[in-house]
Amino acid sequence: MKTLIADKFESEGIQQLEAAGCVIAQDVDLQDESLALALSSNGVELLIVRSTVVTGDMIKGASSLKLIIRAGSGYNNIDTAAAKSCGVAVANCPGMNAIAVAELAMGLILALDRRIVDNVVDIRKGVWNKKEYSKAPGLFGRTLGVVGMGKIGHLLAERAHAFGMKIVYSDVVPNTKAETELGAKRVDFDDVLKQGDYVSLHVPLLDSTRGMMNADRFKMMKPTAKLINCSRGEVVSSEDLVKAIENGDIAGAGLDVYENEPGPSDKSFADAVAKCDRIYGTHHIGASTDQAQMAVADEVVRIVKQYKANGEVLHCVNP
Predict the structure, then answer these.
(1) Rounded to an integer, what distance in angstroms lies between the CA atom of residue 254 and that of residue 198?
(2) Is pTM beyond 0.70 here?
(3) What's the pLDDT score for residue 262?
């Protein structure tokens, strides 16, 4: 099976794919026109991507393409509707990076509580300010509000519970395990915003979630509360977030994803959130641990083996 990998991928995973009969070509610099050309001219049957954008025109021009695998959970970088119309299946790897994302979300909570980033910046400048940085609210007894108590939300709640935090959550489906084991309380979305000292978003990007965190929603939160977003950048209005912090509606935020995120080849980031000193940001690295990437690679291999064996597409997102 002629396979193109257009992003970074674990070398062990490549070896497993080759052992399964895939003929591999990997080029992490392919995007836009160069990716379209590679798909249309090389007889590619299987495309594996992480963050690389796969447009409808690319898919329509790839006459041999049968399967696209997103090596991760979210798949909004792939035109799934166009793929379906062309008879191309799209699969993802849900939950394989959940622990890594939950770890980062908890790390952002800890960093915001103790202002770790500011501590480090001052230390590197040669500034000693113990009096200022001795001020911290602490996490024990505080309330974490989880918006979306799926796998990642649950894993974060477990970690927060270990720090003695109370858990409230909103989800269309009750999470009885979280309620029983963690004492989590299911409330509606507005009440999560009102009660949370930290509000962490773990939702997919849908029409109903796009821009869900806007000026009106920030006004519902405590003025001491902080927002965490390791899900999808577009669920938060960057402009409204910065204004909410400047106006004192909320106290700060920890972000790993951004509404106006740089592309794979961009080396600068000029968004307003980057200039707000009460926003701690990371470089969309939630899934980027060695453990997570190996788990994703193993799942990609499992999908390919199943497809080659009987044509079944595991985790198909455009049936």
Answers:
(1) 10
(2) yes
(3) 87
